[in-house]
Structures
1.
Amino acid sequence: MIRAVCDMEVAGKRLVVRADLNVPMADGRVSDATRITRFAEGMRPLLAKGAALVVLSHFGRPKGRVVAGASLRHIRDALSCALQCPVRFAEHEAAADEARNLGPGQVLLVENLRFDPGEETNDEGFARHLAELGDLYVNDAFSCAHRAHASTEALARLLPAAAGPLMMEELTALQTALEAPTRPSVAIVGGAKVSTKIAVLKNLVQKLDHVIVGGGMANTFLFAQGAPMGKSLHEADQIRTVAEIIALAEKAGCAIHLPVDVVVARAFRAGAEAQTLPANACPEDAMILDAGPDAVADFTRVLEGARTILWNGPLGAFEIAPFDAATVALARVAAELTRGGTVVSVAGGGDTVAALNAAGVADRFTYVSSAGGAFLEWLEGRTLPGVAALLQDEKV
């Protein structure tokens, strides 16, 4: 069982908190502070209870060496603003002394973990150095939980460990959507290639009731059924994989839904002339770039009968209109069903978040994960090292 730090007595304790503060920068300033803001919202109540925070994070990819542009000094002011209190800063060498001087309600931000090569190699020695910084380890960075690094795996074995508010929020949402969904349950899986999501599809069809396949992945499924592809993105070498996925779905009683009609064009550019055709009628000189209106109507009926919706990947080339139509339409359906209280909706993945933002509905889903790789590996059914480490209880 994973303990939540919010349920623990933290007064007078120094919490070594692994955060993900790897935020975008422009002209030396934080250009999007969303991650910092969300992290701070969960930390402020702990500070109010009398805890001291030692905040750890990576920033960029300095590859084990000091890079001035990748210093966490650049986010210190933004973190201080979000936490509504002063934030101290320390290089690795001085961090232990600085941490020992923290009082209740005080915060120390430690320099970029990835300046030390021991972070990414999960070095025990570096982890022991980090363990000297406090009394309790708190992982609040689900987005890094798929990596067995010193600050996500080894450190959790050296101190009593707990999950932070964001970590618990993510785990609860994903378990609700995939491990114990209210049924009927539906997954929408899109994206360019079947080959990048084989494990995801194989896992989902064995756990959920319906899987809607979109994007270039749907093209490969349609090709496997004999549909002409013209110049469409598809993977001709994945026919056997498609057959395996379909067989797993049939055995598990999961229905796979593909587009019955598609939107095709001769060029992939904004405002390109497009036409809607049956899914098996793509011309030789055209490419499939979106699901058609009949497909959207079919998919909508599936969602309207659902109680849980899990979404990863767009249904078409959503970056350019008019090929965003299916993704936007279905996103709004899912959002409306969520608002009506009939479904729990969980979405994740970079393109998915971008698509939901473009549709203007990201804030209307039950939960939207920005975890990226960790979210995808969870969908694959993998054990995430950073999550498994929190289950270690012999230290308590």
2.
Amino acid sequence: MTQNNKMSLTSRIMLGMVAGVFLGLLFQFILGDKEDVLIPLGLFDLAVKGFFVDGLFHIGGQIFIASLKMLVVPLVFISLVCGTCSLSDPKKLGRLGGKSIALYLTTTAVAITVAISLALLVSPGVGYDVPTEAAFDAKQAPTLTQVIINMFPTNPINAMAEGNMLQVIVFALLFGIAMALSGEPGKRIAKVFDDLNTVVLKLVTILMNLAPIGVFCLMAKLFTTIEMGLILGLAKYFFTVLAALFIHALINYSALLKILTGLSPITFLTKMKDACMFAFSTSSSSATMPVTLETATKKLGAHNSVASFTVPLGATINMDGTAIMQGVATVFIAQVFAVDLTISDYLMVILTATLASVGTAGVPGVGLIMHAMVLNQVGLPVEGIAIIMGVDRLLDMTRTAVNVTGDCMVTCVVAKSENEFDTHVFNDPNAAKNLEKLD
């Protein structure tokens, strides 16, 4: 074991995150109101913003995210094909889909209900002055009918190239079913896919060991450029959203996991640390998907036949964190603009946001599109979104971690109900260390 591997992956990622935040805040203090500052080094000067922030940190962070995204399509496609073709019962696929979608919609409805209740209790928008320059151009959301039609690819290769995960999932399912029904030819191809899956998972492990550097670069750039003044001005809203996110992640998910499976929430949350830190640093459920899938199978004990379906589906339609932001933001905007919402209005917000989490799946900027839909539904000004956009970057990181936690919780519940869950792996504390070592 090398000196580098003596420290656990979790500790190294945390160290990279803390160091990045500290350096970013230091650079922000050095820059102040200046465009850039030169650091004299004798023979030459280094520009803080030009060389470090827009140079090294930007390049390192973007390469890290690009590397994770590079694995998403091959990992999802190969893993889902392997899982689907191994299903002995064709009806099982329908059960997996039904249970997964029902659980994802249920957790989303619970999330936004908690958010609205907490926001009504705290009243984050009372006394806030509306900025005169607030403006937001809301894009049109696709209809649910159009989304369902668009789930089926006309060109699967193009769907993979564009990263359209719903279309990739549908094609992988159909391809896996066809392999299972093809007899010996299907079995021969299945062996090739099993080998490909092993290779891709090894690549995931390699990238995970390089994660501390990527996390450091992302955090350093973010905290150099983030406007702390905006967060202070919207502190009540900001911390209300954070509180709702933590309540949902730590209490609601734990309660559902314990009630539906009997598994230990503490063990579950402990093993989610790495995936949550990845999600926090990348702000993308899709980019974190390779780590989420590895966590669900290698750390938590869900079999690949289930996890390869529920994790990609969750990364696409599970938007609990976004729903929480929408719940708090709806109350905040209503209070800022002095609009009284009735109980029926809040029930409409819950219903709209829950259904929109599926209806707008895979659409770029989905969070803002969903929020515009919700605001329009209850007659609130869409321009209110512009008020909260300044602090949304940091909140987006936190709600992505919540979404990933929800993906794994649902995966455990569905896998346990299908008897496709290894309790020994879940309870084994050493299973969490398997992803931290290179063979």
3.
Amino acid sequence: MNKNLKKNLMVRIRKAIAGLVVAVVAATFLQVLAFRFFNPPFTVNMVYEKAIAARKKMPFKPRSYEWKDLGQISPYLRQAVLASEDQRFMCHHGFDFREIKNALGDIITCKGFRGASTITMQTARSLFLPSSRTLVRKLAEAWYTVMIELLWNKKRILEMYLNTVDWGRANVGAQAAARAYFSCDTKELTAEQAALLAAILPSPHKWSAVTPGPHVRQRQRRILKQMKNMPVLKE
């Protein structure tokens, strides 16, 4: 291959890569912008799980999912989730660097591993991305987090999180969880019930809100104490 052909090839490759990057940025930007105004009929992970089950020829239980506006969700649950998952939600811009620093410190000092994901990061993960654990997904999660904080306000982020988070037992979102665990609408949840739902969020497929063990009860009590310090975001 002569120098001119090689040079032209490299130019084409660089243009192709640049075009792909621009297309991805534009597509994700428009995707996040659209969900600022429209409620999702489903999440990417719901589709992903169904596709995986079909490929592996495994039985698949359809996910229970019903959208509720923020004003239709118990204020206790709003406070409980903030107390449990992201107490500095109103202060950060998607990434809680203080919590990340603390989590890294625990790993270095062998105190164990704990997550440092914010509600914004978890929203990016639950709405736009599959549940696979890969480096590409983590990078995509960070990118979507930036876009979400740029285009949505905090009320919309919390509303989206409460409607798309996995609450275990094939229940997606607050309404499905309230129905499944307490046979009521999410607006009717008491402070104790809301704290219990928030308590199982870190591991909803392992911990139970129906038959909570000592650890979940301990988390519930801690969340109840911290809820009074959390804001009630109103629609």
4.
Amino acid sequence: MTAVPDLKPTGDAKPASPDVPAGANGVLTIDLDALVANWRKLEKTAVPAECAGVIKADAYGCGTGPVAAALAAAGCKTFFVATLSEAKAARAALPEQAALYVLNGFFQNSGEDYAKYNCRPVIGDLNELAEWDVFCRRTSWSGGAAIHIDTGMNRLGLTIAAAQSIIPRINAGDHGITLVMSHLVSAEQLNNPINARQLAAFRSIASEFAGVPASLANSSGIFLGAPFQFDLVRPGAALYGVNPTPEADNPMQGVVDLRARIVQVREVERGDTVGYGGTWTARRPTRIAIISAGYADGYFRAASSNDGTRGANVIIAGKRCPIAGRVSMDLIAADITDLPPKTVRRGQFATLLGDGITVDELAHHFGTIGYEVLTSLGPRYARVYKGGPAAAPSETPQPAAPAP
């Protein structure tokens, strides 16, 4: 293989925007206005239920602080994270009055942190509830908590029988329970009979918690209709552009754009191979663009191509170009032979996500779901935020925080 001579600056190695460092190999752009538009659409779909925002896993890889602030400014009043460490990051960006729930529950001796960050545990075990009670009695803390009831996931949550055992106490008052909730197993499948079974089970048990708001629907559950929406809906992935209705067109706007720098353009002779294992063979004289991203950056090796299977595409100079060979830790090769000569030069950017390549398309090539695509985006990208309540400050590039 012979590298194309590149002996002088081309003028094409400019940053993606004035705020992106000249040496940035990749740029992850989060459109906070699109995020807010998605939340408003979900809110409207769920009326009269309240629409919360799930911002766990560093807001699905998009950045807890900027996402939380943008949603709060748009009117979102209730938020969900997975862990106490995530709650700490979220609380720093949220108004004090915003309700903040921690999905993974309460651990003994963690009560002081719940009080410090003014957040609420989602309790799914009778031992947890007893430990929470001890803390609240000892400190007179009245910050609230949720009860999680398992209706079929068999993951977290009280059994129906355990939930029924605490109803007399809850209904006696002075309990501090601010929400009763469950989680849908197959909400993205409109006709899955599990949905109806879970709805019936949850409606029955939730109705016994007198005066306590109820929540069942996640992103996809919102689109199952009003019976699933109860008092509060909890969208997560849909906020960030993942399709909550995979059996139909995506009603959500794309939020994430990912570009990576082209570090070299090469000529490959017919019959030469590209990448580890020599699994992709050039069937003609070929031009290859080498892109500075790989599976260490969350661009999965499963998107590779070989002589028998096409992999994912990237967009270069406005055109889709197929990946050539295996995705490696730090680099991707793309076949740019069909682009006009001299269109592609070192220093330009290739689009890996955005401009028509959706999160769900990448997930298909990665052999996974859009959730994993977003939460896997690595820390080596410069981050740029567009829009939101403080557009100018938030557009300063930030190192991507690793997903918890």
